[in-house]
Amino acid sequence: MFRYFTRLLNYFILKAKNDNIRDFNHYSNIEKIPSSIKSVRDKLEEIFSDSADFVLREIALGENSEVKILIAFIDGLTNKQTVNTNILRALMIESRISKLNREVNRETIIDILKENLLSIGDLEIIDDFKQTVEKILSGDTVIYIDGKNVAFKADTKGWETRGVEEPETEAVVRGPREGFTETLRTNTALLRRKIRNPKLKFEMIKLGEQTNTDVCICYIKGIANPDIIETVKRRLKRIKIDAILESGYIEEFIEDEPFSLFPTVGNSEKPDVVAAKLLEGRIAILCDGTPFALTVPYLLIETIQASEDYYSRPYFASLARFARMLAFFASVILPSFYVALISFHADVIPFKLLLSVSASREGLPTSAFTESLLMVLSFELLREAGVRMPRPIGQAVSIVGALVLGEAAVKAGLVSNLMIMVTALTAISSFVVPPMGGTIPILRVAFLIAANILGFMGLFLSIFVVLIHLCSLRSFGVPYTSPVAPLDGMGLKDSIVRFPIWSMITRPKDITGNKNKNVEHRMKISHIKKED
């Protein structure tokens, strides 16, 4: 007992010291804004030297030009109309023709700018010079005042952006057609339109020592597990890298098992998908410059789920999920099953089918394993060529290349007709489960090698190893195979089979946390009553 209290006391002492050090570092890193406008200009010209897009404009206010103001912004990152109308025009024209209640001088200039002249919705006073430079690089306009150690930050962001369009990676027949863009503020607005709740929180941080990329942590306070929120923040703050150019950079830093073949961090380009996951208690991470949002925790069952499942009838959605699951197994196991059957277990093939298979393989110079590996690699090359080349040419390469290559390989006696069918079924099945696009090819080759060594025994052993690995995975502390293992009866309503939405009363317990009983139920309906 004494040892416990000693450890507890040491913990609080160390925590207090760390807090004091953090506070001291925070204040020691603040660089005051020079009170002389000339010193500010010299420092800015030194920082932004050889930068043709950096703009400085000096203005004198007052009848006797007593107060000088320096306006700084980046051309191309700001909305010029906002700068010209709401800042320059207000300072240069309206300040002279309008009758202000007080005289413009150094004592009153801050209040006059804030209350009478600057017609900007988002206006902030800053006392840190480094922070003003960051704001300029972010597209804001900073207004320095001669004789003052503070500056105004005006939100004037306005660069060229791509409009809200239908995402190509998650096409749907029924459902919203809007997708995220490369602008962070547009993406947060799309989420805010879906969830009009003040408990939807957006916390901003900057990542990248050189890029200073804006990253937003999104969650619904009271629904998301506080422990997972703190884990996300802690892992993001540990990222020390020069550049964050896409959310994929962040994904590699925060995932639980970086060497696993299976993704433990989800991504989506659709606001409705991210909003639905937020309502289940997940946390979303938005990154400026990319339309792909990350979602955590991410479970294995989500790979066979689609947003359209919740917009259609539950029977069709359940059938579609079952088909996706079969497609995943077929895309991974089918080539290895073919190799094991031909090379080791031909005696289990029906006699008439065996005659047909033997006739198709007669005269082939390669083994079943070499034949399968050759076709798998050829398919991956065709798929990669179709993705990387321009869209019209890529489609032609994928279709024509597959037809010509397959027919030529059969006529040349390199592969059998049955192998062409197996490859075609494998290729079609692999496109059904896009989230596993990076996992399926590696598992397919690994299973091929195992089947070539031990036949069905090798195939079953490799499947068993993969299942053990899946059961050991965690995504931010949540079991990766939930709700199947550990078994959650209520969670199974939204797994392989989708129950009606009105029957999904509770949120996933593993995601929201067992301690948070107040958000266990997502609806107040305790029974369903049919009206005549």
Describe this structure in words.
The protein has helices spanning 2-28, 37-47, 80-97, 109-117, 129-137, 184-194, 226-237, 247-254, 271-279, 314-343, 351-361, 368-388, 391-411, 417-430, 440-454, 456-472, 509-512; strands spanning 54-61, 67-74, 123-126, 141-145, 151-154, 200-207, 213-220, 266-268, 283-287, 293-296, 474-475, 478-479. The protein is an alpha+beta fold and 532 residues long. The protein has a 5-stranded antiparallel β-sheet with strand order 1-2-4-5-3, sandwiched between helices. A 5-stranded antiparallel β-sheet has the order 6-7-9-10-8, sandwiched between helices. The chain is elongated. The N and C termini lie far apart (67 Å). Residues 11-28 have low confidence and may be disordered.
Total DSSP helices: 17
Order of helices and strands: HHEEHHEHEEHEEHHEHEEHHHHHHHEEH
Residue share in β-strands: 5-15%
Structural class designation: alpha+beta
**Termini gap:** 67 Å
Q: What shape does the CA trace take?
A: elongated
- The helicity comes to 40-55%
Low-confidence stretches are 11-28
Q: What's the Cα radius of gyration?
A: 31 Å
For the largest sheet, list the strands in their spatial order: 1-2-4-5-3
**Largest sheet descriptor:** 5 strands, antiparallel
The average pLDDT value, as a whole number, equals 82
Give the number of DSSP strands.
12
Topology:
Blueprint (H helix, E strand, L loop, with lengths): L1 H27 L8 H11 L6 E8 L5 E8 L5 H18 L11 H9 L5 E4 L2 H9 L3 E5 L5 E4 L29 H11 L5 E8 L5 E8 L5 H12 L9 H8 L11 E3 L2 H9 L3 E5 L5 E4 L17 H30 L7 H11 L6 H21 L2 H21 L5 H14 L9 H15 L1 H17 L1 E2 L2 E2 L29 H4 L20
Antiparallel strand pairs: 1-2, 2-4, 3-5, 4-5, 6-7, 7-9, 8-10, 9-10, 11-12
